[in-house]
Design brief:
Elements lengths: L25 H22 L7 H11 L2 E2 H8 L3 H13 L3 E6 L2 E9 L4 H19 L4 H26 L6 H5 L1
Antiparallel strand pairs: 1-3, 2-3
Length: 178
């Protein structure tokens, strides 16, 4: 009687083995993969609300802050100005935001969430709650707390590095809690 060798199951594209080029950075590779998968999951949840990933951050800021200068919004979300401009165009077309000249400086634009977009607030919160549930499924309370603590430290380190490299202001969730 011969025993056939057991074959390893094929890895899916989403969960493929790490390429040899990242052997010196297994944690960075894991963070990159997790971030990509998290964004995909967020995209699926947000699609039902008519939003694309990242747009909810703009909306969250506007819901909390009211009307702000577009330049302040760009700084707040830490994205490239052209990316924010494109996001705002789409959000404006869908009726979620409106832009208008700043009365104190006509060269600047103010952006605000529309009254109609306020209905999305509860739905975005629910989507983020569901994303959190899916993301942390399988972790107990202590592991969830430890993961949040460790990610906060990683974020703070990267924020410090970003500020050192290009002088960017960077507020992390970790710094805000402490």
């Amino acid at each position: 009687m011969t025993v056939e060798p057991v074959q390893e199951p094929r890895a899916t594209a989403a969960c493929a083995a790490a390429p040899s080029a990242v052997l010196d950075g297994p944690v960075s590779h894991a963070i990159s993969r997790v971030a990509r998968l998290h964004r995909i999951a967020a995209g699926r949840l947000l699609r039902d609300l008519g939003l694309h990933p990242g747009q909810e951050f703009l909306m969250m800021h506007l819901w909390d802050s009211g009307a702000v200068r577009q330049s302040e919004l760009i700084k707040a979300v830490g994205l490239d100005p052209s990316t924010v401009t494109k996001m705002l165009q789409r959000l404006e077309q869908s009726g979620h935001v409106r832009r208008f000249p700043d009365p104190s400086d006509r060269r600047a634009s103010l952006v605000e969430a529309t009254a109609a977009s306020r209905g999305l607030l509860a739905e975005v919160c629910a989507a983020w709650g569901e994303l959190e549930r899916r993301t942390l499924d399988g972790l107990d309370t202590a592991e969830r707390t430890e993961l949040a603590r460790l990610l906060g430290k990683v974020e703070a380190a990267l924020c410090t590095e970003a500020a050192r490299a290009d002088g960017a202001e960077c507020e992390t969730a970790y710094q805000e809690r402490c």
